[in-house]
Amino acid sequence: MDYLPTDGHIEPSAAYMGQGPGGGNIDLDSINGGPLGLNIRVEGMMHTFSVNPPKFELESYIANYTGRTRYNRLYVIGTCSTYLAVEALKAAIAEAKSGKDVTRYERAARALAEVAPNDPEATLDTHWVDHMQKVVKAETDRLEHELKGYKNNLIKESIRMGNEDLGQHYYLIGDLTSASKAYSRMRDYCTTPTHIVSMLFKIITVAIERGDWLSVQSNVHRLRNLQSKQDEQSKVQPKLSTALGLSQLHSGAYLDAANSFLSTDPGLGDSYTEVLTSNDVAVYGGLCALASMDRHELQRRVLDNNSFRNFLELEPQIRRAIAFFCNSKFRSCLEILEAYKADYLLDIHLQRHVHTLFTRIRTKSIQQYLIPFNRVTLDSMSKMFAPGTLTGADSRGGGQQQSDPDTDLTSPFVQELVALIQDGTLDARIDLEMKVLVANQVDLRTELQETVLDDLEDYLREAHIRLLRTNIIRAGLEVRADDKPREMRGKRSDGFGSATLSRGAGLFQ
Amino acid sequence: MAESVEHIISLSSHLRSQGLLSENDYQCRVQELVAILRRPSHSLLSESVLTDLSPHEHTLPYLFVLLYQIDLARSRARSALPDDIKPGGRLWFPAVQFLGDFKGPQVRFAGHEWRQLVNIILDAAEGDPKAVLAVRVLSDAIMRLDQNVCHFSSLHARFLRLCLLSQSYSYALPVLDRHTSSIHTSLEQPARGGNGYLLASNSDANDCIAEAPGISPRLTHKDVAQYYLYGAMIYMALKEWDKALHWLSVVISLPVVNSVSKVMIEAFKKWVLVGLLRHGKLVTAPKIISSHVMKIYQAVARPYLSLADAFEKSDEQRLRTEADLGKSVWCADLNSGLVRQLFQAYDMFLVLKLCRVFSALTTKDIAGRAASSGLDSPAKIEKLIAFLVMSGVLEARLLQRPCDRSFSMLRLPKSTQPYYCSRSRIRVGLVTKSHALKVLTYHSQECNNELKIGRENIDLLVRCQGWSGVTGKGSSKGSIDHAAFGVDEDIMGDLS
């Protein structure tokens, strides 16, 4: 572990860079472009979800957060919502100006210029920019110089603090790569467990902002494995579970994410506002659980969970949605979620997963709804799940409307059902004559026998091929390029093979 | 010299009373007779013998006389294939008579000559428009000779080729079907004896390796590959896709040392297409194919794979463009017939896919879903569905409506077959499969024994070599079993 300082600084960062793309972490692509690349790609969705005004008050919402995440959240809202765009972007500009990150200010100003070109704040305050750039430059130079001095003196604690200051500075000016490098360099100089804990937390915070979820996970595990005192543990635990939950949410492991959020201690309070609030824990955990657990599990692990109840009380609509789902009132559950969709789409962490989560919840509701039925009329189903559309409502009596079934087959709800059946999620079939969905009845005995026959067939084929192969190899008849006797080749080179092939194949023309 | 003829005939008549002779005695006599016949002095056997003798009773003399006469005719006409031998010629009839009537056990001792005769007939038939005349005779002959043992030879491949050329596929079926059900384990024989064709069962193989090596050509990997490719093509012509697919996968999974043969590549192309026709998707290749071989296949058969991709993704438009783009390729590979059948299969799989989703729908609905393909009118779809139902692919009922004839309702009950029907079908399936399993187990055990990895052998080895853990007193049966099983696994594992 006797790394030279320079080695220590290059190595971990290289590892992070390598991990990112391997884990499918798209956010890393835009690290160099500035902080938080993840917002950029969502802009295209703007029109789809800005229809409903969000239910929250921007000011009180953002007041819950501290640190850099304030700007990031404001920027996401500003670029994604048409209702709050100007307000949010103005707040973002103010937020950026109070800090030292010049690029953030420029981006917010540019975004505001797109939304409201005539606003006085939309023009770039070049004076402030120049001034701030100079200040930042001077500060960077000073800190690096100081660090060099500490290194020459070889005092471990000073080097650690020097790196910490430098990391903090880089973090504030938005150079996240350098920040995580600087923090990682602290590792060799940490002398007490408290130092290590604080260093790892700093790395995690930077990694969350970078969107480097693999690094979040590995550092969380590192923290977990540290031995520390009981009271410290209880302080660290909630932050750890939320960070882990976030990384799992972003990698699409919704069940794991739900478990992490559910195990978060209510002691979290507002101690982690630079990343997320308790409200967020409730929303993230609730949605992930809804999307990945069955009714029984939801009841047992979410609603009856004493510690998570504290979170749920902050977001009563989530609790209601889960309760409705558990009571098989899918319509109400979906309606609640639909109503809050706009809010969730403006959440910095949730927005990319809302669509997937909602589809999963919906699919699960349809599945659960069908369990007790042998056959269900499409009518009642569409009333439950697609109240907006009409699917041949008058056709039940076999009346006039039945001659016009196109509306049924082409209606989005039926299309959705068709897709679900085709990918095997629903084990049912649609009867367009009677307008019902019929559950497939499985004749277990026949099915078993059929599978046995199929397996036998497969086995026989495989064994035949292998046995034949053994025999062929034993006879020395493997295909090889150039081992035939010369006269043999002469004999066969009269186009024996090809001529026959051609004539034989001609049979099918 | 007339005595000699008499002598031969009397010797051969003795053989008739096969039942009275002991196995050894019988063999000795046959060998004696073959030895006499092979001597060049029997040139006096005149053509009249062919009319006088019955090929059933005097199999061996008849065979030799026939060959001699064919030789004479050849030297007279100074060509390898004089008119006399061609179908309808002077010697054709006796040859056919012989092949239809010979005695298998005797011919086994004169395998070389028998093979020569069959080759001559194959040669004669191949270029002839009346090739079908030869096919039936040869099919019978091969079946009769192989009654107990099915030794593979290059003759088999040539015979299948003749069947393909003369378009008389069903005559090949007895030969093909037997080879699929019983796996021939005798491929090692040529390598061991250096002979191409051994007309003997394993037990007396040593008795009849009398022929000089080198006279009959050695089997090559090409023979094996061609045999299975031709077999698959015959099944394709008969539209038995399952069997065709299996035979093709045999070809593409042949063991390779350093290169892939052209036959295998042709087989792979056909395998892709047949997989689409049978299952509607690109079938997973046998696991036994090593990855580098697979890479070669994929590189060479790219147009086929992209065609399969379009088919799999139900992209009608792309399928058509791919098929058009690759026209020259299909023509060059002579697969355009198969490619053309893809469209029919595409429609079929489209309908089948819908039928898994719906339990009742109108032909109009199907027409709406399949609008891009050729199936745009309800009437066409009705025709297709009627065909599918009749051929047993689809279990469904069409209901025409009395008031409105423009479309009809398609109902797909879970099963239209009565319960006992499906049960008896499964029963038959189980019985046939269990028989096939028995055969397979037998052959694999035999193979184990020949490779000296039978249970007894392993047991012996364990004892002799004093392997740790199982030696000494009370070596537990279980552990030996385990050892044997381990080696078993190895042998059946990837050998490439």
Automatic annotation (TrEMBL), chain A:
It comes from the Eukaryota. Residues 253-444 form the PCI domain. Keywords: Cytoplasm, Nucleus, Signalosome. One of its GO terms (cellular component) is cytoplasm. Residues 389-408, 484-509 are annotated as: Disordered. PROSITE patterns: PCI. It holds the Pfam family RPN7. Residues 484-494 have a biased composition (Basic and acidic residues). It is found in: Cytoplasm; Nucleus. The keyword Kinase does not apply. Belongs to the CSN1 family. Component of the COP9 signalosome (CSN) complex. This is COP9 signalosome complex subunit 1. It comes from Aspergillus indologenus CBS 114.80.
TrEMBL record, chain B:
Residues 47-291 form the COP9 signalosome complex subunit 3 N-terminal helical repeats domain. It holds the Pfam family COP9_hel_rpt. The keyword Cytoplasm applies. InterPro entries: COP9_N, CSN3. GO terms for cellular component: COP9 signalosome. It comes from the Eukaryota. Keywords: Cytoplasm. GO terms for biological process: ubiquitin-dependent protein catabolic process. This is COP9 signalosome complex subunit 3. It comes from Aspergillus indologenus CBS 114.80.
